[in-house]
């Protein structure tokens, strides 16, 4: 196809008589063609990178049952502390990281972070005692902190509102794939016990750390930064993407800022938006229950009477169901153009499973216990995509979105510190605190999602009753864009 024919297919822009507003209409076939080009270049790379990110933070659970605790002489409390200290720097540095992301190339920033945490992961395989392990876990939290908010924000700079969640789900599903793959990989690497005079659990960290560094070095050439700077789109296609994002406000003829300069007002607007804190509670439903499960699942399954090797392998099927659940609920959310269903429905599944785990007698009914474990990844994994897409859709302009999304992830990920300490060794095999606390936060997440649904719907209804002519007479187009999601012509996604 020639450049002229591409332009003819893609550009369908109507200009209103007063020239105040550019209203785009798009050919569906042309839109799908351009989005497919972006999908092929962006999503596989983000998926690969996220597999390494989640693999590197969670493989300590596999190392534990491969002999790490015995070698280092760790008590149950010390192991839990090694899990916990990761999350404090991980939460602290996410907002600053996304602010750096806005003023540099995402591919370069993410590459730097990956090289750093890959080196730390390799060093974790060489630790000699508890204190060395604590240091490496803290540093791992520092350098991994920037990846997920950067990847989530990057997706919102390429896709419109109801294209975001399914795309996010593709790379986030990599977390479940990584968790499943972690068990298989640990099972294989553990066989290297004695190679180079090192225990098998050390090789889990060393090999995965080296692999992370190798992938990180290639990232600047693999990851695309923005529609404006990419080389795989034509100039007309770049303009097409930029224009449709600018008009993605939920109201015909309204624009939102996509390349505004930083102002402190955007930081204040994000920090004082009370809805963000309900988003954090929803995020906690994922991090507390799922991290608690991720770090404890190998031990729980080991306690069902399986060998260490089989326990590693049996962690795989629940995570694979989690992958299916993430993709399914995200697709439903985008196709139906509503976000709350991808939060409330899956959390209801998790709640039912957690009630079952609290109710059945332990250690009897081991098969039923294992079956109920499937509901935690299946129910707790999808809502994180729901809440990130929901706020990615409902925060504007782009600086507020970058800060707000990072804030949710930052405070939300502190839930991992809680989840790391609720499955107590002395409570095995009942784990009353672990299952009970997870159930409580899942129910709180459901309530928070209901409140958000009601308040967003009410605000949209109020704005629908406003007179558009009066609004445009009162504010200039530039002022409306600067207002972002406070713009009375802006419509929230429900």
TrEMBL record:
SUPFAM superfamilies: MFS general substrate transporter. GO terms for molecular function: transmembrane transporter activity. Pfam families: MFS_1 (PF07690). This is Major facilitator superfamily (MFS) profile domain-containing protein. Belongs to the major facilitator superfamily. InterPro entries: MFS, MFS_dom, MFS_trans_sf. It comes from the Eukaryota. It is found in: Membrane.
């Amino acid at each position: 196809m020639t450049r002229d024919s591409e332009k003819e297919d893609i550009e369908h822009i109507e200009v209103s008589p007063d020239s105040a507003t550019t209203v785009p209409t798009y050919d569906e076939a042309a839109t799908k063609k351009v989005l497919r080009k972006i999908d092929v270049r962006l999503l596989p790379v983000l998926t690969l990178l996220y597999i390494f990110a989640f693999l590197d933070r969670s493989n300590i659970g596999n190392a534990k049952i491969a002999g790490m605790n015995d070698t280092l002489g760790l008590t149950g409390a010390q192991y839990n502390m090694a899990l916990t200290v990761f999350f404090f720097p991980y939460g602290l540095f996410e907002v600053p990281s996304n602010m750096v992301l806005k003023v540099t190339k995402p591919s370069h920033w993410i590459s730097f972070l990956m090289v750093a945490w890959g080196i730390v992961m390799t060093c974790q395989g060489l630790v000699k005692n508890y204190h060395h392990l604590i240091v490496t876990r803290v540093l791992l939290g520092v350098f991994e902190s920037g990846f997920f908010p950067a990847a989530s924000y990057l997706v919102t700079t390429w896709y419109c509102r109801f294209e975001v969640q399914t795309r996010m789900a593709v790379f986030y599903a990599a977390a479940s794939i990584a968790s499943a793959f972690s068990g298989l990989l640990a099972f294989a690497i553990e066989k290297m016990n004695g190679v180079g005079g090192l225990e098998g659990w050390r090789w889990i960290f060393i090999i995965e750390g080296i692999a992370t560094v190798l992938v990180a070095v290639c990232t600047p050439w693999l990851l695309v930064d923005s529609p404006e700077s990419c080389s795989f789109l034509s100039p007309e296609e770049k303009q097409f993407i930029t224009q449709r994002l600018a008009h993605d406000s939920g109201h015909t003829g309204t624009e939102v800022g996509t390349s505004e300069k930083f102002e402190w007002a955007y930081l204040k607007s994000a920090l004082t938006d009370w809805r963000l804190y309900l988003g954090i509670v929803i995020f906690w439903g994922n991090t507390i229950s799922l991290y608690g499960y991720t770090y404890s699942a190998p031990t729980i399954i080991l306690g069902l009477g399986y060998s260490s090797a089989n326990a590693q392998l049996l962690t795989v099927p629940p995570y694979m169901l989690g992958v299916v659940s993430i993709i399914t609920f995200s697709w439903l959310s985008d196709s139906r153009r509503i976000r709350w269903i991808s939060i409330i429905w899956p959390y209801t599944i998790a709640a039912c499973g957690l009630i079952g785990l609290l109710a059945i007698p332990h250690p009897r009914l081991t098969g039923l216990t294992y079956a109920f474990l499937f509901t935690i990844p299946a129910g707790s994994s999808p809502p994180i995509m729901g809440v990130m897409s929901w706020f990615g859709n409902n925060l504007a302009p782009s600086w507020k979105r970058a800060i707000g999304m990072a804030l949710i992830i930052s405070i939300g990920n502190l839930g991992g510190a809680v989840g790391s300490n609720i499955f107590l060794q002395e409570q095995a095999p009942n784990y009353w605190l672990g299952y009970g606390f997870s159930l409580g936060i899942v129910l709180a997440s459901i309530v928070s999602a209901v409140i958000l649904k009601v308040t967003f719907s009410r605000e949209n209804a109020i704005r629908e009753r406003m007179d558009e002519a009066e609004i445009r007479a009162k504010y200039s187009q530039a002022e409306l864009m600067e207002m972002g999601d406070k713009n009375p012509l802006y419509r929230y996604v429900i």
